[in-house]
Structure formats: C-alpha cells, structure tokens
## 1
Amino acid sequence: MSYVARVASRRDRRPEALILDPGVLRDGELCEFQSELGVEHCGGTVVQPWRDRFLAAQAAELHVLSDPRELPDAQFPQVAVHLQKSRAATFEDLRQAWRVLEPGGQLLLAGSNSLGVVSAVKRLAAQLAQSGIVVANRARI
C-alpha cells in the first residue's frame, strides 16, 4: 500500500490559502479582493490596490484591477474578500463584493483569527440577515 502525503508549504499556511481547502470554492470564476490564490486556481479577477501585489498578479498574467468600481454589477458567481487590519477597508471591500456578486452567489470572507475573522463573519451575517458559516478554522498546521 502506498500513499502520497501532502506537506503544507508556507504559502498553504497563509490565511489566504483557506479558500483553497476542498469544498470551499464552487465551479466558476472568482472575484478575489486582496489576494490572488483563488483566481490562480479557478480563474476570474483579482482586485488588488497594493502596487507591488498588483504588479505581481499582472506578471502572473492574471486579470487584475486596482479599483473594484471598474467591475460591472452582479458579474461573479463567487467573491472572496480577505480580511485586512483596517475594518473600514475590509467593509468597503465587502460592499463592493456584494455589488459584483450574482444573485444566489457565494460570498467568502477569509482571514486569520488574529484579525477577528469569526466575529467579522457573525457581524456580516447579521447585517445581511443571513446565516454565516465558518467553513475553515485551523489555528495550526
């Protein structure tokens, strides 16, 4: 009997990598705010205002925008927002994400426990009158 063990790389341990866990992403394009890992996996658009990360996504030949207002409404079946240190910045990303999400689409909020992702999911769910589900919560690998 043989098996292949998957060893988590440093990249896999980053909070942004949580959306790559099995069963999280749906089929179809993704609009991803503040990271590009999901778009690398399933295609779509990266929204990245930070110049160095914008240029890195561009060099990787990903479709990348610095301003989410350039995106048309209700275009994506799934949108991922990565939690930032600034609550205001995160909630602006969430506002834009909600705008570009197709009706019935999936909105993902990813981040580390140190930034308060669980409480942010609960707060967002209450504001949207939805039930928030924490699909991945792993403290250490």
## 2
Amino acid sequence: MKEIVVISGKGGTGKTSIAASFAWLGGKDVIVADCDVDAADMHLLMQPDYHESEDFYSGEKAIIDQDKCTQCRCCIDVCRFDAISIRDDMLYVDPLECEGCGYCARICPENAITNEIQNAGQWYISTIKTGSTMVHARLGIGADNSGKLVAKVKNEARKIAIEENKDIILIDGSPGIGCPVISSLSGVDFAVLVSEPTISGLHDLKRVNELVKKFKARAGGIINKADLNIRITGQIEHYMKSENILHLANLPYDEIFTYSMTCGKTIVEYARNDLTTSISVIWDTIKQAI
C-alpha cells in the first residue's frame, strides 16, 4: 500500500482541484483522505454521502464549579495564559484562551476546577461519486488539535485500504507547514508539491520542501498557472532540479479551474483539453514513480 499526499506551501495554488482530479482518475482503486481539516472543501467536488460519522474529542479546557469556588484567586495567579478572569464577583475560564494544561486544577485548594475533554469536530466515512471511499473531517470553529484529527483521518483511511485491499491512499493535505501538514506527511511515500509562479509561491515551496525532506519522502512538483510569470516559473524549475524534485508538469492558467468548481465537478470530468490531458499524464507518472 502506497500513500500519496498533495500539499502546497500556501493556499490558493489549486491543490485541492488537482487532488480531486487525481481521485476521479484513480476511481475505485484509491482510498481518498481529505486531511485539510481546517478548511475542508474536497467534499464539494466528490459528493460524499456521509454514511458514517463520529464526534472527535481532543484537548481539554478548565471548568470552574461555582458552588465550590471560594474566589481565592490562586488559579488567576498561576494561569500563564490569562484565561481566568473575574466577572460579577465570580471566576470564569475563557475557553478560547485556556490551553487545558491543568495547573489551575492542581493548585485549587477547594478542588473546584476540573478539566473536561472537548468535542473538537467530526470525522466521516463516505462513499463518493467515483464509487470509492473517502475519509474526511471538519474541525470545530476555534478548535485546536487539527494535527490529531488529521492523524485520525489517515489511520481510518489505512484501515479501510487494508480491508478493501486497495493499493493507494490519496491524501489532500493542508497548505502551509503547520501541525496538520506534518501529520499529513507522516508515513507517505510520495508528496506532490503544488506551487504557483509568484515570489511567495517560490518561498513557500522551499519551506514545504524542507519539511518533506525531514520525512524522507520522494517529492514531485507541479507549477500551476505557469504561463503567468515565466521568469519565476524558471526559478522554480531551477530550484526543483537542484533539490531533486521530480518535475511533473507546468500547468497553464485556465478558467476551467473555476468553471468546474462552480459546477461541483473535478477538472478532468468537466472538460477535455490540453490541461486535463496533462493532469492525466501527471497521475500516470506518479503511479509509476511509486
């Protein structure tokens, strides 16, 4: 079983559109995992049926029992996050500021503070329009632990791939280099790095590639909208060559990206042109590479 992750150093590069196209081309042969849990949108293109769902609990927050609290303010003195305040002569915990460290509960002389585990979101197992299975999730508003939710999505996708004897898990990762990206990269065999020909695009490609190298995964690069800035495209090509990143393709700017999304379709099912042919060739190249 091989794992392919599609990531980008920044948002807006076309990462999810390309990942969804790979999912369409892979059909029933791939298990899809949408690990962009902070801003999940692959479901808009893959039409999941949400036939299984489960709450995801992770992280803790302090809760003060007002009947036990004597307003000694010891908790205020030790809270490093300034999460506890006084309102109407009572102590309250701001759930957005509380990091769940539990120190306030440890020092409370009245045992009036407890830590409660939080509902951080939901994860789903769905059948998608290709007939395959997709594991996906939605992080709650303001919730933490997106990295742990990504790990949950990936682990469930692996279980299903083993049960259904599927050889490929296709992962749509998060943009950037934060915790969810690190979790998305864990254990992958091939990372597809989607960039765009801008100064920030090149900079963020370098950052995400440094992260990929730490996981010792092979990497391939796609330059999307490559014809909009030939000079920067050349710099990205030079960088990929120097870093031994497999240059998968340069994709031209094409409004099909937008039109297909508004129709709720992947690029490769919406139209047949040079762009979609290139994406099909990229998918075949990736499968050969792994």
## 3
Amino acid sequence: MSVLTYIILFTLVGSVGGLIGGIILFLKGEFAQKISHFLASFAAGILLGAAFFDLLHEAVHEGEEIGVNIFPWALLGIVSFFLLERFLHFHHHEQFHTEEKKTKAILPLIIFGDTVHNFMDGIVIAATFMVNIPLGIATSLSVFAHEIPQEIGDFGLMLSKGMKPKRIIFVNILSALAALLGAMITYLLGDVLKGFTPMILAMTAGFFIYIASSDLIPEIHHEKRKGFAIAQSALLVAGIFVMWISVSLLEHSH
C-alpha cells in the first residue's frame, strides 16, 4: 500500500473507529460506564508507551541528524495542550452562569473540543506515517485506544444534556472526520513539514503524555475501592507493556 493509503485507512481507524466507545454506550449503557474507567487506564498506558518507546525515540534519532534538541518541543506539546484545555474551560465557566445556559453552552463546547482534538489526531497520524510505516501504525493504535473511553464519556455527557442518540452519532461522525482533514493537509504539506519532523514527533509525544497524565491517570486516583484501583493500575502497566511489544514487533516486521 502507498503511504497515502495507510494514512487514510489508519486515520479512519483512529478517529471514526474510536466512535465504537459511544456505540457501546448506546447498546450497553450500564456496561459501558462500568468499563470506561478500565479502558481509560489501559489507554493511559498505551499513550505513555507510545510517547516514550516510539515517538520520543524516533524524534531523538531524527533530531540528531539535523542538530535539533527535541525535548523543549516535547515540553511545548504538553504546555500547548494544557493551554488549549484551559482556554476551553475558561470560556465555559466564565461566560455561562445559569444552569440552563450551561446546558446549552456545554454541547457546542464538547463538539468543538472534540473536533479540534480529532483534527490534531489526523495531523499526528499523517506526520508519523510520513516518517515510517511502523511509527504511523503504532501512533494510530494509540489514538484509537484513547478515543474509545473518551467517546464513552462524551456520548454519556451529550445524552445527559438531552441530545438525541441519532444526532449524537451524526455530530460525532462529522467531528471525527476532522481527523481526515488534518491528515490530508499534513500529507499535502509533506515537503514543507519535512524539516520539522523531529519537532512534530516531540510535540506529539508531549500531547500523549499530557492526555495520559492530566485526563486519564486522575481517574485512577479518584477510584477508592481497593480492587478497582489495583485493576486500573495493572491495566495502565499492561498498556505500557503492550505498546512496547507492539513497537518492537512492528519495527522487526518492517
């Protein structure tokens, strides 16, 4: 397959495929809510494994060739995602005060946040495939892993705010397709972006570290029941291990 085919296929897997989490919620609502915390723990491990075993490793290698220190760029990725989330939360909390207005405001906010997130996922997937195929596959699987629990949460929130199931699916499919737009733009700008590859990889690692550390891992800490907390911790470690094995196998197969 061509690089473009890989990009299109795995962008759809990573973004649109992630909607499976929301569909599970519609079909098995109670079950989906129960497993969402476990899925989030596993996804956190996947993201951390991808960042440290794959993205940073490749960024260091690419950066050495052109004399770029990639670690400030990884930090920039973490800070950028933090600022994006703060911007969204600031506008939600500061501009809308009554409960009715909050309900009306939070739905477009969720959709906008998801769309931006998906667009960035598309950029990340395309950029990594343009470095090499195994890196792109590993990154796509990481995106897919963290999209499932995220979509369960988002779908559940939209349902609780009164949005109809069919409309939720339609809106989320359109939002997920923003990933394909991001991927195509990145692919078309390939020659322009080539010199920035180490920085893009490092920032992507920063994004993954931030998502795992600020959004997913806190869910583990909120769980007070001993058995659940142990299981979630084990799943986080399992996610790291799975990504380590996956990266090793993909590198050897190519």
